[in-house]
Design brief:
Elements: E1 24-28, H1 35-38, E2 45-48, E3 54-57, E4 64-67, H2 69-78, E5 84-87, H3 101-113, E6 119-122, E7 125-129, E8 135-142, H4 148-165, E9 169-172, H5 190-199, E10 203-208, H6 209-219, H7 223-229, E11 235-241, E12 244-246, E13 249-251, H8 260-269, E14 278-282, H9 285-309
Parallel strand pairs: 1-2, 1-14, 2-5, 5-6, 6-9, 9-10, 10-11, 11-14
Antiparallel strand pairs: 3-4, 7-8, 12-13
Length: 316
Amino acid sequence: MSEPTDTSPPRVTRGAERPTRSLGIGLPYFASLPPDVYRSRLVDFVEVTPETISREQGKKGRAAITLVPDQLERAQKTCAGLPMVVHGVELSIGSAHGWNSAYLDMLDTFQSTWSFIWHSEHLGFQTVLDDEGTSVEVGVPLPLPATEEAMRVVAERCTAIRCRYGVPFLLENPAYYVTGLPADPELRDDAGLMCAITEHSECYQLLDLHNVYCNAVNHQLDPRAIIKRMPLDRVVEIHVAGGSWHNGIYMDAHDGRVPDVVWELLDYTLPRTPNIAGVVFELLEEHALRLGVDGVAAELTRASEIWRRWGLSEAA
């Protein structure tokens, strides 16, 4: 699929109608967790990152991402009966030279095999062009400048992706560890950029509350003030997670239990998101194993309690 043309994106009128049905509490798919975790009453839906059941094939910069059939089959069997959403990590939607077409080609195949209710990606970029014009990974996701130019590029790509898959597409607000990024006065920061993207595209938001907390801690900000400036009527999914300190920086490490302050932010945010459809306890697979089944269950239980406190349910 060719890149969208470089024209101004249309202004989209926001509606009050929920873009998808409410699901409840979700957990990422991990092959190493016992399948019974996904068959318990604690998990209402599963979030799959297709790259974790894929392999790259081909030369550097031109590699294809190919699903591994037996891993895909195992994931489908483990999660049978659960609604499924996708959370990608390799699209690099904000790269100036273009997104990762190999990821979308893989997602085309994935959707034809296992349909998803919505899918999400990160607002940022992780590939650049080297001196030979080859797209290379920079190693970590990087935040975009809050500029009109960046907004227009991402907004148009969001609309193209929404048309390509026919289900809601969500962008996740990033955690960032650098300051002094370029910003237009009317956008100001990542919250302003997210608002503008959702206003000018068919995009919704995945509101990562742990990312909000990371930014608040590292940059001396008020997390509730950040949340208030997000496009809360466009929030479909929320992530909660744990983190840790490294060399004086609080990292979005996905390495354990959710801090109490993030649970408080969830309690604060849920009644302000009229189109919320699900909350996911996010962590990395190696840390899920370390936390153990009981630890994972405890976090899912707490998320469910807050979800129900606000009158939300799977049938909402």
